[in-house]
Structures are given as C-alpha cells and as structure tokens.
Amino acid sequence: MADQDMSNNNNDNLVVSENPEHPANLIPSLCAKFWTLGWVTGTGGGCSIKEDDLVYIAPSGVQKELMKPSDIYVLKLSSQTDLRNRSYLRSPPCLKPSQCTPLFLAAFTKRGASCCIHTHSHWAVLVTLILETRGPGFDKAFEINNIEQIKGFGRGLDKKGNLGYHDMLRIPVIENTAHEEDLTEFLEEAMEKYPDAYAVLVRRHGVYVWGETVHKAKTQCESLDYLFQLAVEMKQLGIPWLSDIEPTVPVRKSQQ
Amino acid sequence: MADQDMSNNNNDNLVVSENPEHPANLIPSLCAKFWTLGWVTGTGGGCSIKEDDLVYIAPSGVQKELMKPSDIYVLKLSSQTDLRNRSYLRSPPCLKPSQCTPLFLAAFTKRGASCCIHTHSHWAVLVTLILETRGPGFDKAFEINNIEQIKGFGRGLDKKGNLGYHDMLRIPVIENTAHEEDLTEFLEEAMEKYPDAYAVLVRRHGVYVWGETVHKAKTQCESLDYLFQLAVEMKQLGIPWLSDIEPTVPVRKSQQ
Amino acid sequence: MADQDMSNNNNDNLVVSENPEHPANLIPSLCAKFWTLGWVTGTGGGCSIKEDDLVYIAPSGVQKELMKPSDIYVLKLSSQTDLRNRSYLRSPPCLKPSQCTPLFLAAFTKRGASCCIHTHSHWAVLVTLILETRGPGFDKAFEINNIEQIKGFGRGLDKKGNLGYHDMLRIPVIENTAHEEDLTEFLEEAMEKYPDAYAVLVRRHGVYVWGETVHKAKTQCESLDYLFQLAVEMKQLGIPWLSDIEPTVPVRKSQQ
Amino acid sequence: MADQDMSNNNNDNLVVSENPEHPANLIPSLCAKFWTLGWVTGTGGGCSIKEDDLVYIAPSGVQKELMKPSDIYVLKLSSQTDLRNRSYLRSPPCLKPSQCTPLFLAAFTKRGASCCIHTHSHWAVLVTLILETRGPGFDKAFEINNIEQIKGFGRGLDKKGNLGYHDMLRIPVIENTAHEEDLTEFLEEAMEKYPDAYAVLVRRHGVYVWGETVHKAKTQCESLDYLFQLAVEMKQLGIPWLSDIEPTVPVRKSQQ
Question: Which residue ranges of B are tagged as binding site for Zn(2+)?
Fold first, then answer.
C-alpha cells in the first residue's frame, strides 16, 4: 500500500484493484483517451462511474492524461443523497471534488445511468454558438437527422433498441451559469423536457453525455462528438442539419 | 486456452494464432489504427478479411480500439453461400454479427477481394453531402482527377497496374437505407455499373473499400480518405475536383 | 555516468535524476507532448522551469520530441541576474542556448513564475493575423469572454482564485522582432501594462505562457490554445469573440 | 541473421545495425513518424539518406508506418552515377525501388544534401492548387514572409546561417508528370533557377525537401508543412501571404 501513497484511514481500498475494468482504473484510462481527443484540455471536463451504490468521480483541476486511481473520489449513493450536499467515502488528499458532481449524480439518479462524461470539446461549443445565432427561441436544441451515426444512440430510458437512420436526434441546450453546480437544476429541467435524450449541451461550455453502461456512455459521447464536428463542417459548407429524405425501400429479389 | 476466455466447442482455435498476420490478430490491430484515424468512431464501421474459404469479421457494437481476437466471427464461404442467410463456424458469446456482413461478402464473391473495410469517416460523409447539393442525377458518383494520390488505386478487376495521374477516379454513391443489410443489393448494383471501382460511397453514412489483399484494401482506403479530405478542402476554397490539365511531356536531353 | 554521455566537469549532476518530476526530466517529456500538439514543430518554441534559484532551459535547435535530460541548460538566478548577459552553471556540449532565455527569465523575475512555455502554435499565429486585419490601434490584445474554458486562468499575480465565466480574458499582443532576444523589452512592457495576464502573444510568431507552477503553466497553455482554436473557428463562422450575455441567476428551490 | 529474413548474398549487412541513427534504422522510424503526420498516406511519399557514398532508400509501395530495415535499398553513389540508370548494392526481395530515386539523387548530387524527404501532405497539395488559381505565370512559386517559422530554413547552399523574419521564403513549384521519374529534369531546372531553395513543390502531388543533415531535412520539412498549413488557413481567412511589415527596431535602454 505504501508505494501507492495512500493512507489507510481514508478507504483507499476502494480505489485499489488489479482489474482494469474497476472504475478507479477505468476513469484514469478513459480520461487519458479523452485528453488525446481534445475533450478535456487544460483540466476541463470530467468523468464519473456508478457501480452498485458507489460513485467514483475524477477530481477537479487534475491534468486528465496524468490521472491516477489514487486521485479518485468515492461517494455512496442512497435514496437520501442530496445532489448538492453530500459526503465522500474517500477523498484524495490535496485535491478538490469536481464541480460536475451534482450533474453526474443527476444522470445517475434521474436517468439510471452508470457513467457520465463531461467534455469541453470545441465541436460541442461551436454547435451551441451556431445555434445562438438563430436567436432566442430557436437555440434550445441541436437537431440532426439522416446521418448513419445517429444509430449510435439508444431510443431512450426504458425503450428498446437504438435510433434509426430516419429518426431525429435531439439534444437540448441549456445556458451556462457562473458556477458549474448551478447548472444542475437546468440540467434536470432539460432531462424532464427531453426524457429520451442521453446528453445535454451547455452553451459556450461543452456537453454532458451519459449511458446505461460505461460502454454506452463512451460510445454515445464519441458518436455525438462526431455529429457535432460534422454539423460544424456542414454549416461551413452551407448544408442544413435537417433533411426530408424519404426512406429508400429496397425491392428484394424474392418479392419481385 | 483458459486465459483467453474461450470455450472449446466453438471452433475457438480458428482465432488463436501467434502470427500477427493471422486475420484474427490483424483485424483488431487494423481496427485500433482506424479508430485513431476517426474512421470507426463510436463502434461505427468495420473490417473483414477472407483467407482461402474462411471469412473473419469484426463484430457489431464493439469499441474498435479495444477489439480482441476472441471477438472475431468466422464464416465459411462456399459457392452456395447466401449473402443474407449464412451460418457461422465461430460466434463469440455475447456479441452480435456485423450488419455489414452481406456487404463484405459481396466484395469477396463479386470482386474477388480478400479484405473489405467500412468506415464512417466524416470526409466520406461530407463528400456525399456536397454531391447531394448538385441535385438528382448529378450526385451518383465522386469524380476527381489530376491528383498524384489517385495512383494509389488499381485499374480494376482483372486489369494490370494502377491508375495514372491523368486518369479519373470514379467512386459510385448509393443512397443509405434504414437497415444496413438492405444496402447489399444497391452495393451489388453499383459494382455492376462501375466494374473497375474498388469502393462505394454510401450517402450520409460512409464508404466501403476493398482490395485483392489486406495491404491493398488498407492503402486504397487511406488514399481514398486522403482524396475525400482534399476534395472537401478544395470545395471550401472554390477549386473544382475535375481539371483539364494536359499531360506534360518531358523533353529528354538525349532526345534533343 | 558514462552512458549518459556527460563529462563531470560541467555540473552534469544537475540534470541527472530518477525523479520524473525533476525539471531535467520534465522538460523533455513536456516538449515531446507539445510536439504531438503541433506547438514546437521544426525545433520552434521552447520551455523553461525554475526550481529555487536554478533555471532549467531547453536548448535551441533540438528536435523537441527527441530531447534528452543531457540537452538541458542550467542557469543560477540571483538578484544580480542580467536577463541578457548571463552565465550557465551547465551547458550541454555542441548545443546553443535558447534565444528565448531572456523572455523566460522575465516571466520568472517579473511575475514570480516557475515555468514558462513558448509555442509556435498556428492557432496563436492565426489569432494575431486576424487581429492585424482590424488595423493599428485595435490589434494589440486578444479579448474573449463567456466561454467556460476561460475559468482555466488565474485572476493574476497576488490575486486569489480563477477568472469566472463572465470575466474577459485579455492577452496582450506584441510585434515580432528580427531577433527573438529583442522581444524582451516589449514583453516586459506588456507585462507592466497587463499585470494580470499569464501570457503574451507575439505577432506572426506564437505565444509565451507562464504559471506559478509547472502544472499551471501547462494547463493555462492548453486552455489558451483551445481558446485560440475556438476563436479562429468562430471567426470563420462569423461569430464575434465578445458577447454581452447577462449572468443567468439560478432560482434555488429553497429560495422560492 | 536468419531471424531477420535476409539472404547473405545481397549485402544484407548494409542494413543491419544496432545503432538507431544508422540510415537503415532511421528511415523506418522517420517514415512511421511521417505516417502519423499524414505525409505518407497510402504508401505515398518517401525518404532517402546518404552516408558517405552510400544512399539508403525506402522502397516503393510499402506501408510507411510498418517499414523494416530489411526493406531498404542501398545504392553506391559515384561521380559516374547516372540518375536514371543505376545499380543497387542491395535490393530487398519482392519489393520495387522507389520512383523517387532519381529525385533523391538530384538533391544529393546537385545540392550536397544528406537526406531528402518526399511527402504527399495535403497542405502542400492545397498550396499548389491555390497558386494555380492565380493563372499561368503567377503560379510557379510559393512565397511567404514575416512568419517566425521561416527562420527554420537555411539561407542556401554555401551560405551561412538561417533566413530571418523579414526575409521571404520562396519555394518553386513544378508541374506534375505522368511518371514520377520524369519530374527529375524539372526538379533540376528548378534547383538551378532557385539555387537557395531547400524544397520544390510538385503541383497536385506534394513536396520534396532536403537538407545538409537528416536533422535539417526533417526539421525543414516540418517547418514547411507548418507554413503550408498556415498559408491555406490564411487564404480561408482572406489574409495575404506577403506583407510589407517594417522591421521593429528595439531601443535598448543602454542606448537611450
């Protein structure tokens, strides 16, 4: 234990595992990957994983590509958990908890998610800026259809299967607040208004993406970033995000 | 065997080899490389290799940079193989076969390919979107000439050598369908109409690229992605994709 | 020692340590990372770390991704240190000291910084070129507000905490000079005029970024590069860098 | 030797060395790096190093990120070397010599270079396409000034020192030919007309860059690619490549 620089009176055992799939190992390896994608530049962004009633959270202000398991906070989730006032089972010494914590908890408690990722991807920021130019009332959701990658998203909570090519992906946009924790109520509001969305854009800030598993949160976050990049490039080329393409019906030879 | 987490009653031996060139090892290493290129974001895209009468296929829905040999499906190809209804020699537990399978098989059976790669590269998608703006009848093929990288493509099935600098590269575009398997008949139709093409673009979706060897499929896929990126940038700069440059005839000193 | 190719009469012990956080190890690993980010292409840019009264400096003209601890210069800083005429405790054989040295020393002596990074990032250069098109008098500072990543910057020397979402980040721009050392007086002038800035842009050249710790210099440099990239993309989309967004005041349920 | 898969009757000893700086080791490691930079996509581009009278050359048609020392050709350079008809000291079995060979040899024999790099970088191609839009007579050279990175280039053959910030970097452009070898006479012509240039652009194809050492060829190639990228982005922003900025003369305090 000594060589892991952890004192024993802090539940350090919660973040020590040889299993690479353990949340305390997975969060650092995911964050390092996100850094290379430009999602968590300059300590921005974050990631949290829920396993049973334990929530593992990346700390604030750490260089994301250098994070270690011993940097991870652990929180116990209960029916009484207050999203704002909460106590940690484990707190790394010398670090600060992530300001994203109540937002991560909202995804876990309101949506049954097991993983939530927050990125500052500049594609996400640019999409919110492009929407802003449409003026008030027309800037509250990113909508795109008829792009294959849309199939990378689930239909929504308690619904089976994934979106289809002809479905519209709709991601709500909330306004940024001075303090990240203050986003929580607006995030929850957006979750209520868009019950099937797996993500919420934050104007001039970034995006929160969640999923029922780590796998789904991560691949939905990748698919969304792909779509944001595509949307910005479409805008630069003057191509609209929505189209009215009719489904192509294949004529099977056996039906002819 | 035990540490590879494979049960013996599933022909697992088909995907166990210490040779890095074995298809079950090559597909994961190729897919990891493709992930870093942004071709298979969010489990999109895929890859298949044919060796003799065995077809190795990446599964559906797996994070492409994390794929393992034990994730690979194996199919036996015969003259009776039905592209739609087929049985697997080996199926990994807990995974689903790729929806791209009948499209991969079309490249193997109709074109004698040994490897087929499917990417969701956003350059490919943007090229199909730019073509779409030309209107019906003018949007069914990507055409470019007088770019050196065109030499990276073979002249076509049963033809010797590669395209030249003054040849036109022509890649057909098919419309996307709600279900990926339904693309098969349109892909085959495009193969018949453009017998020399080594690739087919799918509108708002991506591209299928194949080759007589893994090497050729991979390098043709890279060359094509390079050309798609260049074409998008040319469009942004107002430079047309086709030119009428006359061949420069060098005057050899010995001929003067 | 022999295998490190260092002669003992040159204070080589100053750059030999097994601690990865030692400046002589940290500078090469940071520079290798910066190379992958495109910040120090073609031997451009540089990095220096101050620890107590010792200053460690990357040499001139070395491929930044290949730098070794034995390539590092060491300088002793004293109250008498002349920023232009200085003597080295250690000079690697066959290398030249960085022309950035007096600029790094200015950050250490005038701002109490512990690390200074100089990049040639083309986003930084493009920002100075865009500002230049505004004409004389309007091109001397990069200003941006209402982007979350701005929170990545400290409020300034001797001030507590970081900038907020509604604060404006202001980075002065100085004109480039024929010889990099001649930038020093203009850099110092800008430091005096903008006492809270942690960075100075150099027209058509790049940026100098510093911080009270290596961590802060590195993450502020990342945040700034993120903002420069975003600013260029905003310009291409016709979106202004400054906005007049009013703070969103959350209505806490307990206050209702 | 056996495990390197080399037969002894082919001077294989010429490409076997444990020294990472040996040309047969350096070319593969450089090419792998160039592949990640997008310079040698799809087997395009190449690299050659001269050491004394031996010339080491990357083969044609090999995936550049996978190249091995055993893939390298070796040629003996003599005063009688015919750039077109030449014999190899070592030829790898199953590979073809690079079509770039006579162009590499031109850099070695006409310019005293020790290393020559050929890339298909799409920034280089875009620069030649942008120049083409200026029309005949105005499209034969890329010219840029007042960008710090220009200092990364030597002043020219037999001249001391590097270009300054206020110097103009001028890179000639030659037209592409159907066969790469036919470029040779146009490359030589451009070398004669622009005796100080360390690079020649090839329209719609790429760039050849050389240097007196491997270090200089590589860093000049990086600096040039940086400038090509910057030039394309400047064009997109409507900023001209040439400016008439007057040198800023610093007023030293001691002179006041």
Answer: 118, 120, 205
Q: How many CB pairs under 8 A join C and D?
A: 80
- Identify all chain A residues contacting B38, using CB atoms and an 8 Å cutoff: 226
Q: What is the ipTM of this complex?
A: 0.93
Whether B145 contacts D204, CB under 8 Å: no
Whether the CB-CB separation of B57 and B75 falls below 8 Å is answered with yes
How many domains, in total, are found in chain C?
1
Which chain A residues are closer than 8 Å to C219 by Cβ? Answer: 42-43, 63
| pLDDT of amino acid B9 | 66
CATH code: domain of residue D236: 3.40.225.10
Question: Is D201 within 8 Å of D175 (Cβ atoms)?
Answer: no
Is the predicted pLDDT of residue C38 greater than 90, yes or no? yes
Enumerate residues 6+ apart whose C-beta is below 8 A from A158: none
Residue A255 lies in a domain: no
- Can you tell me the distance from the alpha carbon of C49 to that of B97, in angstroms, rounded to the nearest whole number? 53
- Closest by CA to D148, choosing from C230, C41, C27, C134, is C41
Q: Is the pLDDT of residue C173 over 90?
A: yes
Residues on chain D bordering chain B, Cβ-to-Cβ distance under 8 angstroms = 38, 41-44, 63, 120, 122, 125-126, 129-130, 132-133, 175-178, 182, 185-186, 202, 204-206, 232, 235-236
Residue D249's pLDDT is 62
pLDDT tens digit string along C175-215? 999 999 899 999 999 999 999 999 999 999 999 999 999 99
State which residues form the domain around D201: 10-244
D4 in any annotated domain: no
Question: Rounded to a whole number, what is the distance in Å from the CA of D178 to chain C's nearest CA?
Answer: 32
- The secondary structure element, H or E, covering residue C50 is strand C46-51
Q: Pseudo-torsion of CA C238, C244, C245, C247, nearest 10°?
A: 160
CA atoms within a 13 Å half-sphere pointing along the CA-CB vector of C12? 15
Of A231-240, B20-29, C74-83, the poorest mean pLDDT is in C74-83
Of the candidates B239, B250, B253, which has its C-beta nearest D177's C-beta? B250
Residue D68 has pLDDT above 90, yes or no: yes
Look at residue D80 in the predicted model and tell me its pLDDT. 65
- Residue C198 gets which letter from DSSP? S
| Residue B98 belongs to some domain of the structure | yes
Binding-site positions of D: 100, 118, 120, 205
Q: Is residue C139 situated within a structural domain?
A: yes
Cα distance between residue B242 and residue C253, in whole Å: 63
A218: chain B residues, CB-CB within 8 Å: 63
Residue A256 pLDDT exceeds 90? no
Is the pLDDT at A33 greater than 90? The verdict is yes
Residues of B at the A interface, defined by Cβ within 8 angstroms: 38, 41-44, 63, 120, 122, 125-126, 129-130, 132-133, 175-178, 182, 185-186, 202, 204-206, 232, 235-236
Edge-to-edge order in the sheet of strand D141-145: D88-90, D73-76, D54-57, D46-51, D115-119, D206-211, D199-202, D168-174, D141-145
> Which helix (H) or strand (E) element contains residue A115?
strand A115-119
Binning pLDDT at 50, 70 and 90, where does residue D129 land? very high
Closest CA to D199 of D139, D133, D130, D141: D141
Residue B193 has pLDDT above 90, yes or no: yes
What is the rounded average pLDDT of the residues B230-256? 80
| pLDDT cut 90: percent of chain D above it | 85
> For position C176, what pLDDT does the model report?
97
Over range A119-129, report the average pLDDT.
98
Tell me the residue length of chain D.
Answer: 256
- Confidence band, pLDDT 50/70/90 cuts, at residue C86: confident
Buried b (16+ CB within 10 A) or exposed e, A53-83: eebbbbbbbbbbeebebbbbbbbeeeeebeb
